[in-house]
Design brief:
The chain has 188 residues and is mainly alpha-helical. The protein is built from eight helices and three strands; from the N terminus they run ααβααββαααα. Helix 1 packs antiparallel against helix 7, helix 2 packs across helix 4 and helix 3 packs across helix 4.
Length: 188
């Protein structure tokens, strides 16, 4: 992350972590997210990948939208969790194309492939599933960005709601974590 953060590390002396108030902190979090996505191949997938994932999953069994989201997250080792805002429009598009049908039961729509959808799934069966791009990397690479984003989220929470003493303790923890991470790299 060369040059991603001010030279003073997280505790640069201007506001929380040298970011001078809340706005700079969000920019730093975006930089952190961007760095993780660049180094691990990105956690955002293309619209076609959501489509392929939905068809692949529905070829196995009928599912509702939340199940599809959960299965993708599970199969990618937590590295890819598509939003409802990408899955549900994809389901509607597939229904409009005649590839899936929706059956409502208990207030939930359960989606399944049509005959045409099964043909499409067979064509895709020769290709790796979209979530396999994450699985081909060793597991620690998909877990690391998630841990980093959870740390960034906790950092933002302290910045928003912490007392000055809590903020200083958070800065100390983050500076220690940074030093310890670099020492891990120095070991090998």
């Amino acid at each position: 992350m060369n040059g991603s953060f001010p030279s003073g590390g997280f505790g640069g002396g201007r506001g929380f972590g040298g970011f001078g108030g809340g706005g700079g902190l969000w920019e730093a979090m975006d930089q952190l997210r961007s760095q993780f996505e660049q180094r691990t191949g990105g956690s955002r997938m293309a619209r076609g990948d959501v489509r392929a994932a939905v068809i692949t999953l529905l070829a196995e069994q009928p599912m509702h939208g939340y199940q599809i989201i959960h299965e993708i997250e599970e199969r990618s080792g937590g590295a890819w969790k598509p939003s409802a805002g990408s899955v549900y429009p994809t389901l509607q598009l597939l229904a409009d194309e005649g590839l899936i049908t929706a059956e409502e039961e208990g207030g939930r729509k359960t989606y399944s492939l049509t005959g045409t959808g099964r043909e499409e799934a067979e064509v895709q069966a020769d290709k790796p599933a979209p979530w396999e791009a994450f699985g081909s990397r060793s597991g620690h690479l998909s877990a690391l960005p998630k841990a980093g984003m959870e740390l960034a989220s906790a950092t933002a929470q302290v910045a928003r709601t912490g007392s000055p003493e809590q903020v200083q303790k958070a800065i100390d923890v983050l500076e220690d974590a940074r030093r310890r991470l670099y020492s891990i790299l120095a070991e090998g």
